[in-house]
Amino acid sequence: MLGCVSITVKPIPAAEHLAFITERGSASFLQTPAWASVKKEWRGESLGWFDADQLIGVGLVLYRKLPKLKRYLAYLPEGPVLDWARPDVDEQLDALVAYAKKARAFAVRIGPAIVHRRWSAETIKAAIADDAVTRLSQVEPDDTSLVATRVLRLLQHRNWTTSDGDEGFAAGQPMFNFQLPLLHTDGTARTEAELLKGMNQLWRRNIKKAEKAGVQVRTGERADLARFHEIYLETAQRDGFTGRALSYFETMWDALNAEDEDRMQVYLAEHDGDLVAATTMIRVGTHAWYSYGASTTAKRDVRGSNAVQWRMIRDAAARGCHVYDLRGITEGVGADDPEIGLIQFKVGTGGEAVAHLGEWDRAINKPLHFAFLTYMKRR
């Protein structure tokens, strides 16, 4: 019948959720069923989107309960996993909101994992060198996705709101990320020599310096998370952020690797028996993420951080990944920007900055949603 909405959302088994992602090729690790076991302070649920009887999308929704009230924020970090090019995306999102309302959610928060804009390494370097430019968004992107633009307009016109700030870090996941493509534009794999050639002179020199100094990089076991965590806390103190407990990383390891034994790995860069850098990497299908990194203040001159990144890049490529994701950056490119060092380090890989659509809320109970946003801003 004309005008009949056939899209429905309902709970699905974790196995069906995971099978959809596997068949699709990849999705954010934050949208895997296993992530619910990591975020134990939230209640997780696997959802499926159905067009009649056909499964067309999935999502991990995390519910956070309001104090003293049986009302919830329904949060889908870097999700849901939909075909955003379909013409019925509006119906799919409406079906999610309708389901969340029945689940007593006061609002739904989504973070579509779709790239909207891209800036090449050359464009970023030119922006950094230009004193008149302070933010990446002031620079014309090298590519803009028409599909993502359509989704953006849809969200804007269907009562979804965003609180992402100008600097590019959302309340939950970052809007701006840095990615290294591991494929050519024609879909063929880039060789190790091509990946190395794409890096800047400083990165290539530091990789060679680490090799000459005798830095050895290896993958570790679960027990090595404790060694990683020791220098991670040193990094946190040095860089002024609050580190997570070792138990958090152990929970990640157990949950993600129970779902796929090769999903999370820990890398250790050692020099003469001393641990000088360590990282964790997560892979879902054709997408690999550098998730956490740490380095010691001592022996920084042996360039363990460059060595461990180069090993992870090569391993991701060898496993058939299409993208090596260095995760969040801010869009500030001014000389005095406090995060300029981060983007300069990442741009040295020869990759590209990408802007996703950010995180968007759809209020179901507007007073509760307003109170929640007010509380989050004050906190």
Automatic annotation (TrEMBL):
InterPro entries: Acyl_CoA_acyltransferase, FEMABX, PG_Glycine_Bridge_Synth
Keyword RNA-binding in record: no
PROSITE patterns linked to this entry: FEMABX (PS51191)
Glycosyltransferase listed as a keyword: no
GO molecular function: aminoacyltransferase activity
The organism's place on the tree of life at top rank: Bacteria
GO BP term (any one): peptidoglycan biosynthetic process
Alphabetical keyword list: Acyltransferase, Cell shape, Cell wall biogenesis/degradation, Peptidoglycan synthesis, Transferase
Membership in a protein family: Belongs to the FemABX family.
Name of the protein this chain belongs to: Peptidoglycan bridge formation glycyltransferase FemA/FemB family protein
